[in-house]
Amino acid sequence: MSGKRRRGDPGPAELLLATSIGRRFYVQGASKLEIAEEFGISRFKVARILDQARDSGLIRVEFDVPAPLEPTLSDEVASAYGLRRALVLERADRTEIELRKRLGAMAADLLTELITEDDVLGLVWARTVNAMTDSLRGLARCPVVQLCGVSSRIDTREHSADRSVETVRRVAAVSGGEAFPVFGPLVLPDHRTAQTLRQQPGIAEAFERFAKITTAVVSIGAWRSGQSTVYSVLGQQQREELARKGAVAEVAARLFDADGNELVGEPGHHVLAASVADLKRIPEVIALGGGAGKADAIAAVLRSGMVDTLVTDAGAAERLLAQA
Amino acid sequence: MSGKRRRGDPGPAELLLATSIGRRFYVQGASKLEIAEEFGISRFKVARILDQARDSGLIRVEFDVPAPLEPTLSDEVASAYGLRRALVLERADRTEIELRKRLGAMAADLLTELITEDDVLGLVWARTVNAMTDSLRGLARCPVVQLCGVSSRIDTREHSADRSVETVRRVAAVSGGEAFPVFGPLVLPDHRTAQTLRQQPGIAEAFERFAKITTAVVSIGAWRSGQSTVYSVLGQQQREELARKGAVAEVAARLFDADGNELVGEPGHHVLAASVADLKRIPEVIALGGGAGKADAIAAVLRSGMVDTLVTDAGAAERLLAQA
DNA sequence: CCGTTTTCCGCTCATATGAGCAACTTAGCA
DNA sequence: TGCTAAGTTGCTCATATGAGCGGAAAACGG
């Protein structure tokens, strides 16, 4: 039947002693000295029993996170890429739209928690950030600055896309703070137009505030159709040329290669947006991006060192770890 | 959707910080000072985060006992009745025979663990103890003493019942130690016969060793048909008379009332068995008994203060706690 | 706006704790 | 039997830890 007991395999008395002590220590929070006296053994023995019980798996610690987060993956991604924190959503096979919604909701909760009255919030114009707006219910009173112009060619199947520049306004409304929107297109035909637009009163006001931003929310785009705000507004020729030059990711209309280096001085890619230097200056940059297909783009952006907090999903997180 | 965040309800960043710290501390065993330095916070904050995470249920400690035991019930029963330990088998609705088999197997494991070469083992003759023999695979070399005579009227549907006095012999064989069986009936017609039998060479040898026994295994019987070795060999009149006098439990042919007091000097109840005083002198008495219907009998015996270790099942344990 | 209450945080100091060590026991083997 | 190797136990001492305190900041009420 049960076979002969193997050496080192503890009997029921030892097992129950270990669970009793474990309960006293881990659940009820008693001190080891106290437990030692109760059980009539030395405190060293208590310590050894506890260590062994933990190492052997008899005592297991579980985390009941009251949010759809994967704490283990979050830890691993954050430490693998040197981030301040990572928020990895639980796996849930769903459409891109649903995923964006969930990422947005999580980012909204995070923002509500992090932002104080002393902060200045910067927002990129992107679908996931717009989705965040929908879930945002409370925010400390603070200025809200738009970090880049808007793209009109974006997929409009989603309700939030209709509101275009209203994102910043809406966040400011929830917050009660001042809004600094950028009324202008994200990608411009030439450098001169970009310069002219930047001198427009409203836009200039926003750009002046980039240096004061304490927390920014950006979206990570992949250099593929439907995966980037910029990609969608360029011509096929430009898309291919940039891809040849190594573009795999996009944040605030800035492109990155797989190593996280910015692709600078691209011809025909003049944008109305904060520079990478502007973004790197911001103490807390929250980047949103999920889906297994976006993992390479996310990895590239993380390697740029720009991101402090990543909000992603389990599918992308696992791919990130695989290539870390 | 998600509603406004309530006060005191932590955001995702705080949640992940708490799980990260919890993993570092509880799983990886890092010190709080170490964690504080890693996260750039004071060690007091680490302690407070951990306390709060534990109290709020974010961090949950589980016990994976590699045996069919209920550690919580075991703890509770042991502390409610002042036992050294209790082994409560997991609930598993089964027949009495199966239950006895499982109790016996658990007792066998316990005995294997507890007995050393310096011990002297005492065994009662009862079905559960016989069942233990079947599962006993290893035992330190030690003398094995039979604590009472045998009953021939016991239910013989079980294989182990056939072996009658062979139980002690078999245990001694597994152990490699000397056997001291009691070849004689448990219940005798009168005092004189009992005295005569006790002077028989083999029986006297066993009785002389009662005082040296360090560990005994006894079975708890209820004063009902089929629930006690003694009950089965008495006539209906005697059974009823003893029940009127308060008998609810039986151990080694000694009867107890609900308060754990022995029913002494019963007419027509002369037995070939260790006395209650003999049993109370033994440093480690392991009592076996299970099934919800036996709970009252078990409680009675525990109240006698005779038992150090109880081996029972969840059904009985819960009833024991209800009346503790 | 000011005063009060509440909450949060990090300090001091007495206590609890763990690493490492040495004495001891047990197991294995010739 | 005697020997060595492996394991177990409790001690010392430097370090880690928690209770309780007080000061600072936030929240509240007038």
Automatic annotation (TrEMBL), chains A, B:
Organism: Prauserella halophila
This protein's record includes keyword Transmembrane helix: no
Domain Sugar-binding: 73-322
Pfam families, per the entry: Sugar-bind
Region forming the signal peptide: none
Membership in a protein family: Belongs to the SorC transcriptional regulatory family.
The protein's name: DeoR family transcriptional regulator
Keyword Transcription recorded: yes
Keywords: DNA-binding, Transcription, Transcription regulation
InterPro entries in alphabetical order: NagB/RpiA_transferase-like, SorC_transcr_regulators, Sugar-bd_dom_put, WH-like_DNA-bd_sf
